[in-house]
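Sample A.
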Amino acid sequence: MCLLQLVTISWSQDVDYFKVDDLGYVYTLSQASLVKHSPEGDTLFVYSRMDLGMPSQLDVSNPLRPLIFFKQTGTMVLLDNTLSEQRVVRLFETGAGLPEWVASGVNQEFWMFDALNKELLRIDERMSVKANSGYLPNLLGRELLIVGLAERHEQVILADSNYGLWIFDRFGGIAKRIPIKGVIEMRTHASGIFLRTESGPLWYNYGAIEPGSFQNPKAAASKQLFDAQNGKYFYLEAKKLQVQYENAD
């Protein structure tokens, strides 16, 4: 009889932040260095820019074009799948307002939340604004505390700690509202969305009416960073990345 054994592996290096892409590759941030690891944990590529400040956001929704945003200097860096620098965009110099959140989009575009005008902008590779939401407090009827921004399945998902999820179409129009209390962080995958909330982790399938609970003992007991992909569960504990998976014994 084959029994499934829960295996936990702790990575040796300290990690401040991590993300997992849809192919299972793991990206870790420590100080100003971004490292891409294989699904097995081997170091593949390293990227570092000490002159741009500390990275504030990492978007790996497109594994072929990871995006790093340095909020302090208003700089967006586009990489390829080997973490080679492809483009550096200094958003403060483009007249695009006050960038607070940036997310990768399709067709070489990206989304930006402009904290000055409080609107979502869809911007193409020439830095032309192709769509905007207008003033969001008027559109949504409330002030926002944004904790996440992503585009998936031609929908733009904005995580708001004060309300939950706001889902927009590609023209900046509101398409759906999903109230969820106390959202802390959002991580998106092709299959769905992980939400870290004050009451515990949640999983949301695109198109569902409401999110469901995420069943994992470590996740249920922890409010730390977590993610899951390809049968593996990842979480941070004392700056060490822990990886759990079931193995046939």
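Sample B, a different protein:
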Amino acid sequence: MTRILQDPAKRAGLIYLIMTILVFVGSLRLIIIPGETITPLLILLGRIGIIVELIHIMLFLLLAWALYVLFSPVNRNLALIVLLSISVSVAIQALNSLNWFAAFSLLTSADYMQVFDTDQILALATFYLELHMDTTYIVEFFWFLWLFAAGLLIYKSGILPKYLGLLLVIGGFGYLFVLFVFFMFPSFMAISVVGAVPAVGG
């Protein structure tokens, strides 16, 4: 483990692997849906999910640092773009987690929310959940930036196989395509799966 932490490439890879695992664990919070019966188990899963999401955000920031250390000897300017774009996306994601937590608080029926009827609470919760999802599309622009820059660095440096760099660049443009469809043609979001596949792969 000590050798892995001392090697910049392995350190970045380890952080990315842990982040990938946490994505699936954090998705537990999405089980809670407006209009469904909220059980104590769902509430527990929701709380675990939000904590895992915050840990994932923190690790994303550490990944930015690890990638900067790894790639700054190759091209400091591109490495700085990776660092800054991830940092901005982390800030947006951290604030965006409040939208999901607001929906969660509404659905778990805090006492002071009793002044609203059920339909009003469900409408507010749905609004915050949709706002949480929509804000993710803004984050994806900065994901495009860091994936594109990191892909170029990998391709030029030879630290990792060049095909990984190409995959990151393609994944970055996949996020950009999804973002473009969302803002310009929201009624045709189904076609964004064309860009979502390479984006997720990146």
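Observation for Sample B: The mean pLDDT is 81.
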